[in-house]
Amino acid sequence: MLAVTSEIFPLVKTGGLADVAGALPIALAAEGIETTTLIPGYPAVLAKLESAETVLNDGNFFGGPARLLRGRAAGLDLAVLDAPHLFDRPGNPYTAPDGGDWPDNAIRFAALSRMAATIATDGPGGLRPDILHAHDWQAGLTMAYLDGAPRPATILTVHNLAFQGNFDAAILPSLGLPANAFRIEGAEFHGMVGYLKAGLALADAITTVSPSYAAEIQTPEFGMGFDGLLRHRSGALYGILNGIDDNIWNPATDALIASRFDLHDLGGRAANKAALQSRFGLEQNGEALLLGVISRLSWQKGLDTLLPALDTLAALGAQLVILGAGEPDLEHRFRAAAAAHPGRIGCFIGYDEGLAHQTQAGIDAILIPSRFEPCGLTQLCALRYGALPIVARVGGLADTVIDANAAALAAHTGTGLQFSAGQFGQALHRAAALWSAPETWSRLQRNAMQTDVSWRRPAAQYAALYKSLAAGN
Ligand code: ADP
After folding, report:
1. Ligand 1 near 83 CB (within 6 A)
2. Residues 6+ apart with CB under 8 A from 257
3. Which domains does the chain have, with CATH numbers?
4. How far is the CA of 103 from the centre of ligand 1 (A)?
5. Torsion of CA 309, 272, 401, 301, to 10 degrees
6. Which residues are registered as beta bridge partners of 294?
């Protein structure tokens, strides 16, 4: 199987896509499926590539010389598109140092997709996949390059329909697409070249990262302009939940946290909570309900709706830590909230993997008020670390957290709290009530920690889909 992605953990990561791209090959190996992942040759990738071998050379690939390398890094089999004029740039894979998108992103990810199509049809260096699995808009144009050609079965996974890769049709001559790929049933999207659109229209199967999101995106409210197409393709659309790497996210062995713990002995959590309170300058108080946020600060994540709830939170005697980065306005408002509630609210603006682990290990509950959420990974990590997820009832959040309502409490099955739009404050009150009943809370924690959030089940579902597509091809 050839996976095509613009980021992969632990080499390059801006979000959940990287986690999925990094973890799925390992889980698929247990299902007997070998994966090679095609990834751009960013400096961070080339620096880690071991035993690299050149399998293809092109003197003029989208305006400069390019090579396709095969090698390994961080235990992953990689095919690397080494095209310095497109990818030898520092930092974030999509944005320039000034924070804006690279102006040539359309060309950069057309090049990635073109190379994926070449691998699929020409098999350079013995790489000839039976399945091509493209992720998100950055790989979506692959299906347009393959349009009309004999090709392996194709899958497009949508990690977030908000990121669509729509570009002015003036770039068409630079793309070198097959003659009629720019059509309504192909890459055309409202007069623009739609990279995600091409994949949605032309892939043999579409998957997205939770069953609820697969249903939601067929509605105008969540479809972001694609609901009609997705309803049309509903027979080929599947929702497969993400997992997390349960070796990296394992409170029993996690070297990044102050004190290790497991399902049978949660004692270590107290030390992690104390360490986190000290790290964020909060009052040392094991009795206070310590809530946390680990998130991109963007409209999608709904964290602006947390700001008016901060007074409720303080009145309940709770504490809050925020680890996040994103929209400058939200960064500013959370910093201001921390300054206004010293000892109660702590804020770290930035991206810090170690601090994410320490936060999951030390908080009592994580807040995820997303407006939409294709799957969400932070609630899965939280379940594993015994931090109860308090989540908006959307997408993958609805699919992975069992609301501790009266019925669930009676049946001992709750793992967190869900709330509907506008009910955030009420959910905080419910959380405070549960916190005041320590036995109930610790039962919920143990339920949460017993949830299977690994890749085992999702990998088996992907494997079954690959097999059915390969058989039908
Ligand atoms: P999305 O991909 O939409 O940002 P997900 O919940 O699917 O959201 O995945 C987010 C991933 O990024 C998780 O692994 C989470 O721990 C991590 N993350 C988000 N913000 C930060 C941050 N500020 N510091 C460290 N890790 C973060």
Report:
1. no
2. 251, 272, 275, 357, 358, 361, 362
3. 2-243+456-472 (3.40.50.2000), 268-449 (3.40.50.2000)
4. 25
5. 40
6. 323
CB of 356 closer than 6 angstroms to any ligand 1 atom: yes
Question: What are the structure tokens assigned to 83, written together?
Answer: 């095209």
Please give the pLDDT value at position 422. 83
User: Among the atoms of ligand 1, which is closest to the Cα of residue 325?
Assistant: 23
Digit-coded pLDDT (tens) for 331-390: 999 999 999 999 999 999 999 999 999 999 999 999 999 999 999 999 999 999 999 999
Mean pLDDT of the chain: 96
> Computed from CA positions of residues 284, 289, 295, 300, in that sequence, does the dihedral angle turn out positive or negative?
negative
Indicate which residue's Cα is closest to atom 18 of ligand 1.
Answer: 295
Task: For 34-52, write each residue's pLDDT tens digit.
Answer: 999 999 999 999 999 999 9
Apex 451 CA angle, 245 and 32, nearest 5: 45
* Distance from the alpha carbon of residue 303 to the mean position of ligand 1, in angstroms: 14
Atom of ligand 1 at shortest distance to CA of 378? 6
Q: Cα of 295 to ligand 1 centre, how many Å?
A: 5
**pLDDT confidence tier of residue 473, bands split at 50, 70 and 90:** low
